[in-house]
Amino acid sequence: MLSDCLSAEGERRCRQLLAETTARLRSRPAAAAVLVPLCLVRGVPALLYTLRSSRLVGKHRGEVSFPGGKCDPEDQDVIHTALRETQEELGLEVPKEHVWGALQPVYDRVDEVFELSLAHLLQTQNQGYTNFCQGGHFRYTMPVFLRGPHRVWGLTAVITEFTLKLLAPGIYQPYLAIQEVPRS
Q: Which residues form the Nudix hydrolase domain (predicted)?
């Protein structure tokens, strides 16, 4: 069940699956890093998200993301960056030993912090996929998570999908519906 993903065995399994990637990412410089905060909200496992400020300049304003940001020269590695940025953005101190592994870099700045329970994310009616076309031809498909306070899409949805596969391998069954794309 969902509580199993937070068990000691679930943590061991996730750490083992992430070990190779963690070692690789910690050993080389990166431009940015994120933290995927797994938490309990009223006793229910959830992922914590942020909403980037709508006052930001550029294409990422108002987007849902995980806490994180650019690496500083004094950061020891991507985990240090993710933890420092999470503390700066949310005031949330996470001990380094609570990090199960490393994920890919993402950018920062928030307007709102919210969570989506794992139960919500795992319900198929809250999952979807967006097909992207270019020049009238199908290019790629990305996941999207719906019916929360904000739509989770883009790289954050990809990271969410990876995290759900890792935490709930027997429960999360991504469904990729490839639809016929009309030609223009």
A: 25-180
Type of residue numbered 135:
G
Query: Buried b / exposed e across 16-28, counting CB within 10 Å, b at 16+?
Result: eebeeebeebeee
pLDDT at 184 over 60: no
Phi, psi for residue 32 in degrees, rounded to 5: -160, 170
Structure tokens at 173: 């069954």
pLDDT of residue 93: 94
DSSP string, 28-60: S--SEEE---EEEETTEEEEEEEE--TT-SSTT
For residue 111, what pLDDT is reported?
A: 64
pTM of the predicted protein model: 0.67
56-111 pLDDT, tens digit each: 777 677 888 889 888 899 999 889 999 999 999 899 999 999 999 986 544 445 76
Cα–Cα nearest to 112, from 61, 163, 155, 158: 61
- Torsion of the alpha carbons at 55, 59, 62 and 65, rounded to the nearest 10: -120
Please state the rounded mean pLDDT for residues 158-178.
82
